Q: What sequence folds into this?
């Protein structure tokens, strides 16, 4: 009867091996129940014995830290908000300066036309 709760073991033959005694070794990966990955090599000795060699301690992946994710999301939202506010302020400042320049030129033109059309000055200029 096959084992229904067993995890599969993934094995592959490395292309080249540095050590002479590991030439016939097969590299295997096994994922445990708590999401740890164990790496080991499997080889057969000349006498027929199977040799399993653990390469490293199990590598367990931990989930992301909730506080780090929260701070990253809040920081990104604040940064986007500040950039949008600065852009809006720049656009409004440029628009206001153009409007003020237009207002100043219209005010100067109105004052010049008012001085030229003053009847008192026109009569003095005619008789002098």
A:
């Amino acid at each position: 009867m096959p084992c229904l709760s067993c995890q599969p073991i993934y094995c592959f033959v490395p292309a080249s091996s540095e050590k002479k005694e590991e030439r016939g070794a097969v590299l295997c990966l096994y994922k445990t129940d708590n999401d740890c990955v164990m790496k080991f090599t499997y080889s057969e000795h000349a006498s027929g014995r199977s040799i399993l060699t653990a390469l490293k301690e199990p590598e367990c992946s931990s989930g992301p830290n909730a506080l780090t994710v929260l701070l990253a999301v809040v920081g990104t939202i604040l940064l986007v908000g500040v950039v949008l506010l600065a852009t809006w302020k720049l656009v409004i400042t440029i628009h206001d300066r153009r409007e003020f320049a237009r207002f100043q030129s219209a005010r100067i033109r109105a004052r010049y036309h008012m001085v030229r059309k003053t009847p008192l000055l026109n009569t003095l200029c005619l008789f002098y």
In short: Residues 17-21 have pLDDT under 50 and may be disordered. The two ends are 128 Å apart (CA to CA). The CA atoms of residues 83 and 89 lie 10 Å apart. Helices lie at 66-116, 119-127.
